[in-house]
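hey so i finally got around to running the thing on that chain from the lab meeting. sorry it took forever, my laptop kept dying and i had to restart like 3 times. anyway pasting the input first so we r on the same page abt which one it is
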Amino acid sequence: MTSDHQEIYDTLVARSYFGMFEKITGHLARVADAMQDEGRLTRTEARILNAHVGSVAATFRALSWKYLMTGRVEGPLPGRLTFDRHESGFPIAQELMVMAVDAAQAEKHLAGMASEAELKDRMIRQIVGDLTIPTQLQFALSQRLYYEALLTGNLFQARNDPDGQWLGEDEGRRFLLHWSVYDTQENLPIIYLMDVEEAGRRPLLADDRRWPQVRAHLMAQSVAGLKLLTIAQGFDTDFPDIQPKRLRRLRLGPMYSHAFTLQSGPISQVLANAGGPPDQDWALVWTVEDLVSERTEQVKDGWFSTTTREIWKLDPLKGAEDGTTSTTRMIILPERPNQVLTEMNPPGFRDPRRFVVDAAGRLVPQR
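ok and heres what got predicted. didnt touch it at all, straight out
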């Protein structure tokens, strides 16, 4: 652990933390839908993005079962959730790595456990017969539900290998490649979308020679510190028969909360002034980095041959520094902190697009 990491010791605090994220992940899916309505995402892109967000939600749901009895049972289990309280708000990557190990052994664990019905029956008999709270049985049931959640799959792992969606044919076959990682430095889920064109003898996703190499290459380059331009140029060089046309990186987070995280700058004062219940004490930043190919040109590839290379359109102000065509920041937050943010109007929060969750739970895009 580092000074940025915090363990949750108390049952109610753990449930409040997971309850907050249950709401947040539900709103994230609505943001993708709103971006589709505005033409910022295609239907396919919104569907894929929602699938990744759904995996994040499933992971939080599984962890909420694992740590349901935090602080109420003695012994090494269930342990305590550790999250990054500084510029993240999400669980540390180690939590997901342990979860992956648990998932591999989930069937074995479940085989040695009583069924859900049997555990509930024992609870009733202990409450009625002994007049005591069946804490150990509650813990056993929470662990059973945890392992069952792991078996359902669809979890956001530390690395989620590339998959692809066929988009049609133009000058070549067009695919949308997508993959995601849980960055170990930032402790945030990061999603990648790449549009490519190719004209190989076999379609890329069915090519057992190129597709494994593409997947391995993309995962090796999925580091938050790398510029999109570096990733795109490296791919363009290593796979001359596949042309990347657009690359996007979406950071889901950080999540800020006055109760859970340590933040600097105006957002700290906004959340402190807003106060209110846990469901009003949060704000989540969503960042989209976008790199678009402007044109192609022929370059020398050895003494007697040439190859096609993408020329990337860079932002005239920050493109060379950031390696992107554009960077869009959005913030999702409830009504109360949004009102405080509007009143304070700090300089750093004038540009990000806001999505406000109203009292009825509806997501309201702000212009």
